[in-house]
Amino acid sequence: MTELGAYLAKKSASKAEIAKKTGISKSRISELTLNPSTQLRVKELYLIALAIDADPGEVLKEICKELKLREDKA
After folding, report:
1. How buried is 3 (Cβ within 10 angstroms: 0-12 exposed, 13-18 middle, 19+ buried)?
2. Which residue positions does the secretion signal occupy (predicted)?
């Protein structure tokens, strides 16, 4: 499961409802939530956030919480 998948599960969000509201196919939603190698597009993230009545910035922070800048080793 991806970070997006975990986030949507925590919110009890219906993938079918998200697909219906956003126009993103059910198969694409499944791919985004199950396959970690799938790249999430910004437009998709924004639409998904709107569909679940969440702030897009908060969703981004939550699903990217593991990302960190490299430390400068000078």
Report:
1. middle
2. none
CA–CA gap between residue 32 and residue 43 (Å, rounded): 13
- 10-53 pLDDT per residue, tens: 999 999 999 999 999 999 999 999 999 999 999 999 999 999 99
Residues counted in the chain: 74
Position 8 scores a pLDDT of 97
For the chain, how big is the Rg over CA atoms in Å?
13
